[in-house]
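tl;dr need the bound structure. longer version: we got a ligand (fe (iii) ion) that a collaborator sent over and nobodys looked at where it sits. i said id run it. heres the input, straight from their email, havent touched it
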Amino acid sequence: DHDTAVEDLRDHLAAQLTRARRRSTALTGAVDDHDLVRQHSELMSPLVWDLAHIGNQEELWLVRDVGGREPVRQDIDELYDAFKHARAARPELPLLGPAEARGYVGEVRDKVLDVLAASPLEGRRLLDRGFAFGMIVQHEQQHDETMLATHQLRVGPPVLDAPPPPRGGPVGPAEVLVPAGPFTMGTSTEAWALDNERPAHRASTGAFHIDTTPVTNAAYAEFIADGGYRDPRWWSEAGWAHVRAASLVAPRFWAREGDRWFRTAFGVTAPVVPDQPVVHVCYHEAEAYAKWAGKRLPTEVEWEKAARFDPATGRSRRYPWGDEEPTGLHANLGQRHLSPAPVGAYPAGASPLGVHQLIGDVWEWTSSDFRGYVGFEVFPYAEYSQVFFGPDYKVLRGGSFGTDEAVARSTFRNWDYPIRRQIFAGFRCARDAEPGESA
Ligand code: AVJ
Ligand code: FE
């Protein structure tokens, strides 16, 4: 009945908050105080900023707005407003120190669990199906992935640990044909979908082929060996300008020794694994590879159709494999492993058309700019999505090994500048079907 359903939702929300906090605690507890306050890269905040910012967002939305309680630390709002200070400037701010930051997030969390226990979880849109709590869970998990990227940029002995990913397996043909026609894109019913995923709407594509797997290290190394980084034919004008200005010769964290490539990940240097998806490439590199391969990147619409459309029923699924939540058999998510898994490692996660590893492993660059869908409405704040709409950002889809399952829906949209490589981004290719070619 209704009361039981509300109690179940409350338990679920508390469990998700606790799970996110366990991860934040592990990521910030793995290093000493010096490493917490240090800036490991101009592109990233000090880890201690992320930690207190997680607490501050939680305070703003759940303690003050939803709970209507007195502020815990109104005096620090400005320090942890991401729009007030660029990441590069954050180490110079009078931030909370490591012990203070831990105390602060703990105090906020205690109040939030109190607010949750008393909340009717209905009555205003922000509370509907626990949205505000879900938004804060996702906010924390997204910053946890950002902190994982900071760990990847950190220099020093390894501090994070995880079992290796499962072995690869057969994946069938290299590409599949997705039929032309409309499908339902986006969602109006996913409880925790963020504003930019809404509303559900009909979108259409022509017939296209899409790779059944992300592009592997082995395939990408062929592009390098073929002189891809030195040949302007493969690059857009902006891409060619960038590859020269930044002296790019290989994915970030790759180094050559003789004729072999090595890769450093989380403090461990090892030979590049041929059948793992390539990771830490920017949009320009993805686009150049695709052109070299005689293909192109998928649009965002094509990516979502490949990930959700079930030709047998005409329905859009929640995930490529169906409507059930991800498990460790479906996808490489949640920092369960510290690298992408070899292609074919998740046969249970394949789509109806046989496309593998759309969810998890690596974020996938699409050729689309980040824009609101027709019918987009800001909810609950413009600084989550709307202020980023426009031609400056490219959309990435699917989530990485560092993305939590609370975030990695097949409608979820990520975005970044086309030059960025510190995120866990790779790609897969697509191409138009020949005229007359049909499934
Ligand atoms: C959706 C990953 C681009 O980290 O900038 C975190 C998520 N928004 N805090 C980001 C986010 C506000 C966002 N991305
Ligand atoms: Fe944030």
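gonna send this back to them w/ a short note. The pocket of N,N,N-trimethyl-histidine (ligand 1) is lined by residues 139, 142-143, 146, 384, 414-415 (CB under 6 Å).
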